[in-house]
Design goal:
3 strands; 109 residues; alpha+beta; Histidine-containing Protein, Chain: A; 3 helices
Length: 109
Amino acid sequence: MKIRHSIAGLIAGAVLGSGVAMAADSDTDRSNPEAFVKDSAITTKVKAKLTADHMSSLARIHVDTDKEGVVWLSGTVESQTVAANAVQIAKSTEGVRSVHSDIKVEKED
C-alpha cells in the first residue's frame, strides 16, 4: 500500500512539476505586475498616438517599453520624415523617459 502511495506521489509531482516549469516566463517585467502594467500603458499610449496621426506607415512601427520607461521603436517607414515624426510622438507621450529608434526607411521610388 505504501508503494502505491509513493508511486502516485511521484507521478503527481512529475506532472505538476513539469507544468510549473513550462509556466515560467522569461519576461522579467512581468515578475513585477505594477511595472508590467505601467510599461503596457506607455506602449498603448504611444501606439494610440501613432494611430491617431493617420500616417499609414506608422501602423508598421512596433512599439515596446522597458521597465524604466524607455520606448523602443522598430519597423519600416517610407521616409525619414515619418520616422522622425514617430520618434517625436513617442517622446511627447506621458511616462516616456527616452526613445530608441531602430526604424528603417524603405527605399523611396
